[in-house]
Amino acid sequence: MFAGTHTAIVTPFKNGQIDEAALKRLVDFQFDNGVNGIVPCGTTGESPTLDYDEHERVVKLSVEFAKGRGIVMAGTGSNSTREAVEMTEEAEAAGATAILQVAPYYNKPTPEGLYQHFKAVAQSTKLPIMLYSIPGRCGIEIGLDVLVRLAESCPNICAIKEAGGNPERVSQMKQILPANFEILSGDDGLTLPFMSVGGCGIVSVASNLIPKQISDMVNFALKGDYASALGIHSQYYPLFAAFLKLATNPIPIKTAMALAGHCSDELRLPLVGMEKAKVDELTATLKKLGIIA
Questions:
Q1: Is residue 200 part of a domain?
Q2: Residue 72 lies inside a defined structural domain of this protein
């Protein structure tokens, strides 16, 4: 179901408000360039600083603007199970076609607590759910034993976005999870390593800016044409590396989107823009790759 490219789409702001016209342009840009889906209200969409009404509005607009061209996988995770359930129910009512559930952050539940959290969310919706393990942000990893239990007891938990930075974990998951349980990379630079050992795609940050290139790379890999996929990866690896090096996501991608004329670079505190030297470095990378003139 999730094989392919899904863009963790930025939330454009204008004078402190959601820039709805810019969001429409971004959604059109994604689907016009071959992505399989978009992920509104994820980390890249600055979900921690969206209030509840804004969260619901972004999901609803994303569904409206997508016009059935692909998956709209709403980020509805929380470190409060009750809140995650409520946001999931709202996203389903708004027309989302799938749900992304990040591991509960900060409160560090036990494996049993983690299992009960995701199970409660899964039981609240009929939508397919992709789990999201990113220990660098959450302080907790979704353990393999928890994944196995969830796959067995919750049929709609059918995929994971793995952002722990370790391709070996993909191999470990493939050994113990059902054959149809899908594993996607959460890091652009690790898409091909993950796919080479059984992953089926990417939830991408870079595809905000270069959707066709990322989609082509993933599609080549899905067809087994790793030489062509590697050519794209090698060409754009400096961009993947810059996004990791320059500042916390989504600061660099939003800066790049502004430099390319897609939306403003407005962020919400506590996120702030990059200093001039880093903007200059990113600008040079974009120019070298021909993304901007």
A1: yes
A2: yes
Confirm if 247 and 275 have CB atoms less than 8 A apart.
no
Among left, alpha and beta (phi > 0; psi -120 to 50; other), residue 198 is left
| Contact criterion met (CB below 8 Å) for 84 and 113 | no
Please identify which of the residues 115, 161, 236, 254 carries the catalytic annotation.
161
pLDDT at position 42, please? 94
Provide the greatest CA pair distance for the chain. 52
Helix axes 226-246, 276-288, angle to 10 degrees: 170
Residue 282 inside a domain? The answer is no
Q: How confident is the model over 220-257, as pLDDT tens digits?
A: 999 999 999 999 999 999 999 999 999 999 999 999 99
For residue 251, the model assigns a pLDDT of: 98
**DSSP structure class, residue 44:** T
Instruction: Give the position of tokens 């690896």.
Output: 237
Q: Which of 60, 67, 108, 132 is catalytic?
A: 132
Cα 268 to Cα 46: distance, rounded to the nearest angstrom: 8
Q: Whole domain around residue 81: which residue ranges?
A: 4-223
Neighbour tally for 191: CB within 10 Å: 27
Residue 132 a catalytic site member? yes
Q: What is the pLDDT of residue 206?
A: 98
| CATH classification at residue 148 | 3.20.20.70
- Tell me: the pLDDT tens digits for 59-77? 999 999 999 999 999 999 9
Residue 258 forms part of a structural domain = no
Mean pLDDT for all residues in the chain: 96
Res 289: pLDDT = 97
Which residues on adjacent β-strands are paired with residue 31?
none
Q: For residue 190, give the DSSP letter.
A: G
* Number of folded domains that form the chain: 1
